[in-house]
Model the fold of this input.
Amino acid sequence: MVTFDTLELKGDTPIYLQIIHHIKAGLVAGTMVHGDELPSRRQVSTLLGVNPNTIQKAYKQLEEEGFLLSHTGAKSTIQITEEQVFALKTLLIEEDIGSIIEHLKAFGVEKEEALVLLDKFWEVGS
Amino acid sequence: MVTFDTLELKGDTPIYLQIIHHIKAGLVAGTMVHGDELPSRRQVSTLLGVNPNTIQKAYKQLEEEGFLLSHTGAKSTIQITEEQVFALKTLLIEEDIGSIIEHLKAFGVEKEEALVLLDKFWEVGS
Amino acid sequence: MVTFDTLELKGDTPIYLQIIHHIKAGLVAGTMVHGDELPSRRQVSTLLGVNPNTIQKAYKQLEEEGFLLSHTGAKSTIQITEEQVFALKTLLIEEDIGSIIEHLKAFGVEKEEALVLLDKFWEVGS
Amino acid sequence: MVTFDTLELKGDTPIYLQIIHHIKAGLVAGTMVHGDELPSRRQVSTLLGVNPNTIQKAYKQLEEEGFLLSHTGAKSTIQITEEQVFALKTLLIEEDIGSIIEHLKAFGVEKEEALVLLDKFWEVGS
DNA sequence: GTGGTCTAGACCACC
DNA sequence: GTGGTCTAGACCACG
Done:
């Protein structure tokens, strides 16, 4: 099932990128699977309080990346293979882990302290 | 000693924000201390290959936040107390780790898996 | 009605300051009143032959001074009270006349001569 | 006699232009006449608390406009004819009067009101 | 179409 | 050489 209920828009990153990331995260987490129908641009735009063009931009980019199939006049459906999902998961997670490590190293944090911090803050966030 | 050798610019966030973050990280890590001279805008701009104005924007904002002092014709110097450093460290670590934990949760990653990944990728980064 | 047809840019003062002054003058003269829509940045920029950012800078400062309101996607509108207009008028006239009187004094011009000159050149300007 | 005692630097216009204007005003007012020696760049710079380069820039421009004669190692002297003084006076005064008229017109002020205001504010300014 | 932001280039005063 | 400012161009989200 594809939903946008859990997406909360935040300030610093562009909205269409947040939407793209939300869908990719759903693919990796398994909440969105091959064949699922995406909500229409209008539904998403009213739900998020965002301009339809912004949704269109996100959908279009996902289509160009090969994760979506759009028929004019019909709903868009997710088109993705198991291999694509696995590759996507590896890529996204590596990026995030790499990012967290880089940040912590920049602050002069050691690996042991990092493990403690990650464990400590895991439950807190939202 | 203040240096920008370890700063590598990335695509998604504005350059001046990356510079601000780099300096704040240096303050937190202790590589930049009270009284240090910052490299001039031109030095940094040629080193990073960006316009001097971008550095100027970063320095100006840091000055407004109370971390450094600029006088025309003289180099900018870091002006910061121990308390400011501590508060900054707490704030930055919570922000960064929190946002990345949120990302991993969105991918369906469990805490144990995250800790393993962190341990595995720690040495890779650089 | 708000217009920029009567604004001619001159060399010595920054363009954005000239725009600010022109709008303030319009407020004082009563040609721009509360609720009026300002022309868009692009309209003004093409009319004056300058970059839209220059207009943006002027509008933004006027907004910070409390004379107009901007919402993304909609035109900016003038928001100003009678009291603000009166205070602005007094301030601007005193500033401008004072500075010019000072110049004339520096040239050794006496008051009587100045009055004659003012009377003589009044019609010429435009 | 040439002096810079009456020159007070103000914020918005470039200093070297203020110096140029001050000397031109002296020429028009008759306080600086043909053959007068100008104070050295160093004297002026210490008196005004300004960098010698700034004075140099002003002197150089005045020299290029034909009002000054500089000999290397000697003091600069004013070189100006009666005709130049008269032309300069006419030009500068017309500019100022034109400027004041334009400003007042922009505020919707009528000629009669302008004469009253000029008369009223004449004594006030310093 | 609208306003908002980031980056860039040129120029300024100053040491 | 230093920091500071004005103008410009490109891009963004939004209506």
In short: Residues 82-106 of chain B form the longest helix (25 residues). Chain B has a mean pLDDT of 88. Residues 14-16, 50-54, 57, 72-74 of chain B lie near DNA strand E (CB under 10 Å from a C1'). Chain B is about 55% helix and 5% strand.
